[in-house]
Design goal:
With about 70 residues, the chain is mainly alpha-helical. Helix content is about 45%, strand content about 0%. The protein has three helices and no strands. It is globular, with a radius of gyration of 12 Å. About 15% of the residues are buried.
Amino acid sequence: PLSEAEIASATELYGTGLSVAAVGRKLSRNHAAIWRALTAAGVQLRELTGKIVLAADISCAARVPSVALL
């Protein structure tokens, strides 16, 4: 689990517009752990837009439409 300080940092970073995956990379934590912590903290998460993901980002992407992986 994330510490209170990490949750505060994650909340702040997510609030600046970073994705959950980007927040995870910044904090050297798994994106799923960040998602769980933000959700548990009551942070309103943004809708997934289905943006195109570069091959380098596939390992940390979640719920990306398969057409984006052409």
